[in-house]
Amino acid sequence: MVSKDFAETTMAAMNEAIPAAAPSGTRAWRPGEFEGLFLEHFARVAAVARRLSADGVQAEELAIEAFWRLFRACPHDRSRPADWLFRAVIRLGLDAARARRRRLRYEAQAAVMMTAGAAGTTPLAQAMAAQQAAQVRAVLARLGRRAAALLILRHTGASYAEIAAATGVKAASVGALLARAEAAFEREYKRRYKTG
Amino acid sequence: MACMSEGELRAQLDGGLAADRETELAGHLAHCPHCRARLVELRERAGWVAERFEASAGGAAPEAAASWRRWQARARAARTPQWPRWAGVGAAAAVLVTLAIWPAARSRAADVLALLRVENVTVAPVTPPLAGEPEVRRQVGQMIEQLISSRLVVTVKPGPPQLAASPATAAALAGFKLRLPAEAAPSRLEVSGAAAFQMTVDRERTQAILNEAGRPDLQLPANIDGALIAVQIPRGVLADYGQCQMEAKPGNPRPRLVDANCLRLREVPSPTLSVPPGLDLNQLAEIGLQFAGMSAEEAAAFCRAVDWRSTLVIPVPRDNSTYQRLPVDGVSGILLQQTDARRALPAFALIWVRQGVIYSFSGRGDPAAALNLAGQMQ
Predict the structure, then answer these.
(1) CA of A44: which chain B residue's CA is closest?
(2) In chain B, what residues touch A95 (CB-CB under 8 Å)?
(3) Number of domains in chain B
């Protein structure tokens, strides 16, 4: 556990990093404000990141990077931080996935072995699940950013209103865009992996 | 009523329509086979996509509080971006500790546990402790170095490495079947000597290190005091591919590989470790992993998931390295890459284990050439 003095010293150090006169459109974080926001939203942001990551550790790294960017951005409007974070983490995840495209093909074409000995599943089941997850990520990296974002948010439990806010579309358009994204996903997936 | 739009049909599947529109849709579907067919098609496709996404959901989400601590470490490190030298020592100590506690909590050998035949490799992501506290870091680094130098006894000195004129000579000197890339000839072959050392654990001094590093919550068990840990490392082979130039900088006794055209292949049979019976090795591993930045829950989960008898655990700093698992040489390996944006040629290491031999390719820049050579091993 982190001591109170240590935490206070850390927060003081972080607040030092924020300009005393914040640029217009931004405002400094109040003590404890960012920590509260982090603890409230981290799990959902990490769940979104997990869809674009090879494992939980990479997902956590992406999520932490998204929060870091929010911290440095110091937006004035903080009424819907989840929307900002979803956009950021999806952008980061897709950029990382596209940069890894060659390795994604590598992973997707062979079983990716999980750590031996994990309880509850067989090694074969783990390998097949990992392979399918890698295939999903590879296909997402090939779709347009908005289509990928729609699919990821839909499958991490976001409502149509949240999806609309995070992707910058009208709520009434989410259904149509989602249908098109699913069709595009299916086409690309079957094209790459020749499955039914 | 006109047919429903595709968007409204799709939204209906997710309950995304307003109540009155939902009612209208139900009434329309009762009389429109075209829309019913479209709805079935959309439902089937949505289900098909959902099945594939199910696999990418991953395991349990990371604990927010633990991730917050890592975020804080990053915030502190942002003010001191350079990887501290002590953390290198700390990481090496963590490797030693990790090595020393691999073996087999589950082994049923009698007095001395001969442990570990390495068959797999995995990664333990770590956060260097004390990244933003240089004075404490220096102090703790000194304590670790003093502890190791006072308690470590080298029982077999490796001696100077021997150059080998050919792979056959290298194999004969090393005493194991050497595997090399089939379509490339090494520019240099070197055989390192076998080594062995043992260390008697000093609980009081080791606990003092944890306390000084701000982790008095990590309490070492009493029965670790005086425990004798022995490590034996067999002969290994180093093969250079390309032009391998080393550069020594003033004040740094360790020359550094600088050439982007150089790949270094190292292979060594699995080291053996022994520890006395009665030590709770999982407990020690959990302490080590928590010191290296994991939460208690993460460390416990990691220890449950790893087969300590057969898995090489590599601690990887979260803040300046990335890693990924990938197939190499017919097994699953790890590619580690430095992420320091200041370096034009970040270092990488490709590590895998096959039939009890640990292989690694190291180099700088793009690892594609290393992956290519690793695919030719025979």
Answers:
(1) B61
(2) none
(3) 2
